[in-house]
Amino acid sequence: MNIFQIAFSNLKRRKIKMLFLMMGLVVGVATVVAFQSIILGMNLDLGNRIDELGANVVIIPRSEGFEAHYGGTMVSDVTFDAQELTLDDIPNIYASSVAEYINIVSPKLVGAVKIEGKNTLIVGVETKKEFMQKPWFSLKEQVDLKPGESTADLGLIELPEDNVIVGTTAAKALNLEIGDLVKLNDQSFRVFGVLNELGSEEDGLIYANLSVVQNLLDKPNELSMIEVSAYCNYCPIEEIAMGLEEAIPNGRVISMRQAALFREETIEKFSKFGYALSGMVLLIAALVVLTTMVSSVNERTREIGIFRAVGFRKIHIIKILFLEIGMISALGGTIGYLIGIVVARYAGPYLAQISGEIPFQFGWFLPVVLTSIGLSILISLYPALKAARLDPAEALRFI
């Protein structure tokens, strides 16, 4: 009978104790795998939400400037060497080194127009891109709706060139309703719809097609800013900002660090909790392995004495114990891995309040099982050495 057969026979004779040992490993491994999978799922989910919630970076015309002070008091901001953004810059974004990350590019021109003698801000946008980038915009009222019809999704609307969309505050201030005709710089436009209140400065704006606003403001081809949404699950926003800066030297790129920081902070907090809980569970599992192996060695004193008496060396005793714990930890690691990914897949979305599915991490299988084996053998080192050092004569006294 070789060493492997001896170790396997020992496991079969001590089924209950080995089952208890394996359960400890299963719980520890399953907890770690489940938490790490949920953290990964949260990362992906938050990345997707940020991708859906507007621009990651904003590009504005580059300019140089400084604050002018006199007598210790700032009297004005001085700006010089102001450059322009134009529609010709858009192709450069798609040709940049970070083009693979680009999702939506929304150019816009902001300016003031006269309405009944009052200056009012108007924003020229490519409506589909603008409202797809900002899905929280919605219509409260819309022209030409039949009874029972609901307002259209702004991201799907082709706004006619002689129509405008009005924010809630602007509609109240100018006393506008859907279907009204309004003159902007002496050109007539129809109010296509009124936006639902957002509680921000956008409520006071009027939206029209970009080309129309460029003509109204006599700024053909010119842009005030370009908002860019990026796929940022695995890319740093700062890296995208640097890539766009290189592509558009006449623009200054501002990354939306708040969104990035919010995502990082949220994941970091949950990760710390997950690591702490996983560490505690692993510690408990390690103590279970240690106490079980020490107890097993104490119970097998007579058996070990016989092995030593018939010629087994210390290294053979250590190998037998390591083979036993190796087989148990391999099986426990495999079962724990399977339970962990299944729990994360089906319970993770409810526990972490995420909308997407948590992907199976099949690539984790081998590292998880090898880690389970390695840790178990490391923890079993003390009881294995204790068993190997048993004096055969002393051990045989228990016969």
TrEMBL record:
<dbReference type="GO" id="GO:0005886">
    <property type="term" value="C:plasma membrane"/>
</dbReference>
<dbReference type="InterPro" id="IPR003838">
    <property type="entry name" value="ABC3_permease_C"/>
</dbReference>
<feature type="domain" description="ABC3 transporter permease C-terminal">
    <location>
        <begin position="276"/>
        <end position="392"/>
    </location>
</feature>
<dbReference type="Pfam" id="PF02687">
    <property type="entry name" value="FtsX"/>
</dbReference>
<feature type="transmembrane region" description="Helical">
    <location>
        <begin position="273"/>
        <end position="297"/>
    </location>
</feature>
<keyword id="KW-0812">Transmembrane</keyword>
<feature type="domain" description="MacB-like periplasmic core">
    <location>
        <begin position="21"/>
        <end position="228"/>
    </location>
</feature>
<dbReference type="Pfam" id="PF12704">
    <property type="entry name" value="MacB_PCD"/>
</dbReference>
<feature type="transmembrane region" description="Helical">
    <location>
        <begin position="318"/>
        <end position="344"/>
    </location>
</feature>
<feature type="transmembrane region" description="Helical">
    <location>
        <begin position="364"/>
        <end position="385"/>
    </location>
</feature>
<dbReference type="InterPro" id="IPR050250">
    <property type="entry name" value="Macrolide_Exporter_MacB"/>
</dbReference>
<protein>
    <submittedName>
        <fullName>Putative ABC transport system permease protein</fullName>
    </submittedName>
</protein>
<keyword id="KW-0472">Membrane</keyword>
<dbReference type="GO" id="GO:0022857">
    <property type="term" value="F:transmembrane transporter activity"/>
</dbReference>
<feature type="transmembrane region" description="Helical">
    <location>
        <begin position="20"/>
        <end position="42"/>
    </location>
</feature>
<dbReference type="InterPro" id="IPR025857">
    <property type="entry name" value="MacB_PCD"/>
</dbReference>
<keyword id="KW-1003">Cell membrane</keyword>
<comment type="similarity">
    <text>Belongs to the ABC-4 integral membrane protein family.</text>
</comment>
<keyword id="KW-1133">Transmembrane helix</keyword>
